[in-house]
Design brief:
Layout (H helix, E strand, L loop, with lengths): L4 E13 L3 E8 L3 E7 L18 E7 L6 E11 L8 H17 L7 H16 L4 H15 L8 H7 L7 H11 L8
Parallel strand pairs: 3-5
Antiparallel strand pairs: 1-2, 1-4, 2-3, 4-5
């Protein structure tokens, strides 16, 4: 059996498993996307209480899986909660859309240091600034460039169509939110 490992990463997805457990999707610097099983995470006296939410940056102590891609989470230490994202629904949708894009262009357990850094900068930006369509397009162009599929004059839908990928559905939802919402005040 291999030794437990520690890795720092962002929680980019979570879903219930059984009555009290959660499956966490994370984006880490050294290992790319990893999936953890947090057993008993929703129990009232769980050591994970208050530590697991979307877009939290945390240090994860986990037991690597013998087979498959689901690792067992042993401990979690919150580093940054990115609470500024919670000031508007549009900010949360933008953060989730960025996470979906990273998932769409990366492979599981493959180091993606540039994508990790870009995602971290995007979350910091969203915590401090009003979300705008220009910022969304800028993230899209950078992620397409990192994936090696950016082409001058082409937007994300066109690039994804050429690769036979689906554009994350949140893109349309985010566009509607940004068109219909008044600009949010700058963070103070």
């Amino acid at each position: 059996m291999s030794e437990p490992q520690t890795v720092r990463g962002f929680i980019i997805g979570r879903m219930p498993f059984g009555n009290t457990s959660l499956i966490l999707k994370t984006l880490t610097h050294p290992h790319g996307r990893l999936t953890f099983m947090a057993k008993g995470a929703t129990r009232p006296k769980s050591p994970f209480a208050g530590q697991i939410d979307l877009f939290y940056l945390a240090d994860f102590l986990y037991q690597p899986a013998r087979t498959g891609e689901m690792h067992t989470l042993r401990e979690i230490k919150l580093v940054e909660a990115h609470l500024g994202l919670r000031r508007s629904y549009a900010h949360l949708v933008a953060a989730q859309y960025f996470a979906n894009l990273v998932e769409a262009i990366t492979e599981t357990a493959t180091p993606v240091p540039a994508e990790y850094e870009l995602f971290g900068k995007a979350l910091t930006y969203l915590c401090e600034s009003p979300v705008s369509w220009r910022a969304v397009e800028r993230f899209e162009q950078r992620i397409l460039t990192m994936a090696g599929i950016a082409q001058a004059g082409h937007d994300l839908p066109h690039a994804f169509q050429m690769l036979h990928h689906k554009v994350p559905a949140l893109r349309g939802d985010l566009l509607k939110l940004l068109v219909s919402a008044p600009p949010s005040p700058p963070a103070g």
